């Protein structure tokens, strides 16, 4: 799509096509990636400047673990809720518990870069690099979270990275791979870039058309140097975060929508459903989608009647190690 998209709902539809479309040739791959790039570029300056681009996670045990760390998130960013912090912590928590410090970290699909900065500090990395397809996001990342000689960001393709073989100890990918049209190419890049003994921390929303878990396990089974260390279904914890963010705190959600779209009721009725979908509302069980705010009530009713766009409602987590052959 040419030009800057003016409506958030347009962006969500455009990204939705990229998520569900199964590319049959290289031309379709290029178009899909361009749709993703255009969509995120359109709102990178407003909605995604300093916020995590993830659905979050809520679990009391995980929260207690995180709270015991000697880590003050507000020194990095003071506008983020606890749920996004807990999801990024969960992603790398096995490595924190192993005290896998002073390593080289790569995040593929880094968005605006806040996750790289957080992971770098939690893991006390020697060097950290964030890569994202969208130039405006990596521009924001370098403006907000760059640290000379220790944290950097570049724009590149997850399926074809300009990085040397065996150049990173840790690779992370969070809630991003469902946008990749040729996901086996991404898995190959992770395998290539990881050092022997290195770890891949991977979590995403299951999409029926992409079937990432099945394709990942088939890829691993075709290799002798990759081993699943941990595999968890974290759907319940992700749903808990979505429920808290949108339903329990519906007033805050509504104010956030107004800050993005203004206060015109007709515009809000068009744009709030798209924002709610982007934040994972339809991932909840339908009977939990109920609002008290009058303008939100018809939106909730409409979403309850829809078929969830991803198919099976699942959020998966893998910790994979590249072993010595």
Automatic annotation (TrEMBL):
Superkingdom to which the source organism belongs: Bacteria
InterPro entries, A to Z: Erg6_SMT_methyltransf (IPR050447), Methyltransf_11 (IPR013216), SAM-dependent_MTases_sf (IPR029063)
Record key words, sorted: Methyltransferase, Transferase
EC number: 2.1.1.-
Domain Methyltransferase type: 106-201
Keyword Transferase found: yes
GO molecular function, one term: sterol 24-C-methyltransferase activity
Gene Ontology biological-process entries: methylation; sterol biosynthetic process
UniProt cross-references to CDD domains, sorted A to Z: AdoMet_MTases
Keyword Cytoplasm among UniProt keywords: no
Entry-linked Pfam families: Methyltransf_11
Protein name: O-methyltransferase
